[in-house]
Amino acid sequence: MARTPAGVAATVHGSRRPRCVIRPAEYADRHAVEQVVARSTHWMDHQPRPATGGDCPLLSMLGAVERDQPLTWLALDGATIRSCALAIKSPMRDERGRDMPGGALWIDDLYEDRDGPDRDGYGPHLVGWLVDYGAHEHVQWLAADTADQAAADDLGDRYGLEVLPTPTSAFLLRRRTQYLPRLTDSVYAQLPPCVRRRRRF
Fold first, then answer.
1. pTM for the complete prediction?
2. Alpha-carbon distance 171 to 163, whole Å?
3. DSSP 133-146
4. Using CA atoms, how far apart are residues 83 and 11, in angstroms rounded to an integer?
C-alpha cells in the first residue's frame, strides 16, 4: 500500500494542527538561525555556541544542497525556529572505523531551543524525523560521533541512539533509519521538489 507523504497526511486530517513544521533551511533564514544558535544549547556539549560562521558549520551551510540532498533542516513551532540541524549523507562506519553497507545521515551540528514550552522535545522530534527521512532516502543509519563520554551517554538516552566506544577514545552514536508513519500526526514536512521527485508513495 502506498504511503502518504508527511506533508499531505498532516493536512488531510483537517483541523488537527501539526505539532511542528520541518523544512530545509535557506540562506534567508540566517538571521533567525543565528538567534537560535546564540540562545540554544548545542547537542554535543549542552553549552551555547557563538553564532558565527567560523564556529558553527550549520550557519555556513544554510541553503546548501549536495546531490539533491538539502544539508540543513529547521523544526518550527508556528513561525518560531525551535531546532536546526546539519545532516550530511556519507558512508557509514562501524566502531572500528570500517565502512559498513548502506549509507548514513551524519548529524554534524544540531541546536535546540531550551527556552521554549517544549524544551525537551524540539531536538528529539527533529532527530526522529531524520530517522524517517533517512529511510526514504535509502540510507540505513542516522549517526554522529563525539569524544565526550558524558555527552554520548546523554545523547543516547535523549535521542534513542546506540552508543559504541571506538579505539580512538571517541564514541559512535547511531540509530537505524525506519519509516515512522505516525509522524504524520505531528509533523508537516515542506519538502523541496528535488526530494519529492525521488519519493515513491
1. 0.84
2. 6
3. HHHHTT--EEEEEE
4. 22
